[in-house]
Each structure stands twice: as structure tokens, then as C-alpha cells.
Amino acid sequence: MTVLRRAGTVLATLFLLTGSLAYAGVKFELGDQAKGEIGFWSQVWYQYVEDGKDSNSDGVRDKGLNDFMIRRAYLSIRGEATPYLDFFTYIATDRIGQQDMDSPGLGVGSGVAFRDLWITLKPHEAFKIQAGRMYVPFTRNYGTTSTMALLTTDLDWGQGGVRSNIFYPNKVGRDDGVTLWGNIYGGLLQYRFMAGEGVESNTLNPDDTLRFAGRISASLLEPETGWFNQGTYFGKKQVLSLGAGVDSQKDLVFGAIQDDYLSWTVDLFYDQPLGDYGALTFEGAYIDIKNIPNPITFTQQAAGDDASIISLKAGYLLPGKVGPGQIQPFAHWQKISVDESGKDDTDVYGFGLNYFLKGHANKISLDFALVDQKREIPIQDVQDHFIMTVQLAGGF
After folding, report:
1. Mean of pLDDT values over 159-171
2. Cβ atoms < 10 Å from Cβ of 85
3. Alpha-carbon gap, residue 244 to 145, rounded angstroms
4. Domains defined along the chain, listed by start
5. E strands of 274-375, at which residues?
6. With 70 as the cut, is the pLDDT of residue 8 above it?
């Protein structure tokens, strides 16, 4: 009951704050063909983590953790110099105030960084050349879906969600490189292929090999043609998308061995308007990993392990409004399996709801999640954790 009272108090406070949210972007034109847009959005969190803190420095988390943070704050600038060239950047900071998190050079915990920055040459809708720092075209969850427009409160566990890290090589979910991408057959198919830096460390990548990643998706109903997709379309779009992706980098060092990293994924996204009965959203994915580069938080996975991840999530947008907004309950589940002898699986279960005030940018979200270990090993930071997250998001 203490946790529920805490959630109620924080939610009540957030409702009182919603009256001041801005809803209009800033668009402008410069000369004959040049145009641009400036926007800003942020997500502020309260998070409670059961056994989230080591109270006596013995290496075992044994005390509840209360954590307020600015989860994301992004200033976006996009422009189009001509119909054949455009640019985009997010000047961003993540997880300001999160306990034991600080990497100012990447704009995490403190500091500000260019989270995304790219220039795109667009000779044709079916062929674009995009260079800079951008999403890795691999998974749908963190390879195409905007973190402003997620179905659930945050990303999947193992892809930077809730309190987890990202299992693949990244710079806060991005990489520096060049991506060829485009839409063909009127958006029925979209492809993306990247050559990027991946792991850069001289110790972990002594041969300075490149990372290669690629993704293809088929939209069998209405197309998804942009760089960023949404995690739910509010019943305004009927989408059935099938996707597959690959991520690889050769000759990385894992402890005493040098081997190749390779991951592949398949995924499905379905968003179905139900007219006067609301809208239904479903997403599922499977990821197979050989020689995982980064251990996943609160699991038994270590660098160099083989692993797999199953992810399922669903949401239902209730018809009509409750007060000024709409309610969308959701649920999610992941199984993180380690394909190594003597190591056990981790499940992450969760449910919650979104209260949309205006689009994805302006909402209140509540999420209850359980990190459930098949076998707890507290001294290795492998424990069960109940995590409650309350989010207020606002922007334009």
C-alpha cells in the first residue's frame, strides 16, 4: 500500500502541472525552398526501485531507492535546404539526476550532447544517403521508433529501457556512420543499411573493424515511410509491419578471446483502429545474439555470451475522453535467456497506462514492472526488483 500511496501522490502532483504544457511548434521559411522547424520535448520521472540501493557497501542491493530524474530533454532542429538535401539534430540530455549515472561527454546524467545529427541527400524517395550520428537500423524498438512515441513508458529492457543498458555497441542508442535507406513500391518496403563505428576501443576492437547493420520492413496495410515510427497510432492508422534486422562487427575482444559479434532480429507490429471501440496495438520481437558486446543490467549475461530476447507488448486505447485526455492501458513482457551453461534466465513483466493530453509529446504515464530472476545471485547484482515509474511528458 505504501507504493500505491506514493504513486497516487506523484500522479496528483503531475495532473496539477499539466495546464502549463505548450502545444505549438515553431516552423519557418528561409528564401525560395529552404524551410525548417524547431521543437522541444522532455520527460520527467519519479522512479521507485525495490532493493535498488546498496546501503552498507557490501555489494548487495538491500534498500529501496527513490529517484527523481529528467529522463529525456531534447531540442530538435530540422531543416530542408532544397528538396534534395535536409538535416536534423537532437541536442539532448538523458537521465539527469539518476543515481549512479553520469557520462557528461554523451549527455547522460549531466552535460548536453548532440544525440542525433545527420545530413541527408535525397536524390529519390527510394534512395537516400544519410551521414552523421543516428539510430542503428537493427531493431524496431530502438532502431525506428521514436522515444517520444513509445507504446510503453520506456524502451525494452536491454535496449536502454527503465534502468537497463543497451546490449549492442552504441552511443546512447546511436552510432556514427552512413546509412543508405529508402522506400520502394509506394512504401510497401523500407530498407536501411548502415556502415558505422560500433565498438571503438583499441582494447576491444584492436583491428578497428567497422560495424555493419541493416533492416528491412514490409508494411502490408498503411505504409510507414519516415525515419521515425510511432509505437501506437491512436486509431488513426491501420498498420501491419513485418521487420527483420542484422547487426554485426568482426574481430572484437571478449576477455581472452577475439571473435565476431552478430545479432539478428525479426519483429511484428500491428495497430488496428476499432472505430467507436478505440484502438488496439500489438508488438512482438525475437532477438538472437552471438557474443553479446555489453552485459545486460540485472541479468547473468556477461560480455561474450550468446543470448536471446523475446519481447511482447500490447495496448488498448479506450474510446472517448476522460477529462481532457484519452487513456491507454498497456502490458509488456520480456524473456532474456543466456545460452551458457550454469546461467539462468531473467523475465521482465510490466503493465501500466498512458493518459494522452495531446499526442505522444504531452502525456502522463504510469508503469509497474517486475524484474524476475529464475535464480537470484545478489552479490552479482542479479536480484528480483519491483520498479514503479511515473512520467510526465511535455513538448511541442
Report:
1. 96
2. 16
3. 14
4. 2-395 (2.40.160.10)
5. 279-290, 307-317, 326-338, 346-358, 362-373
6. no
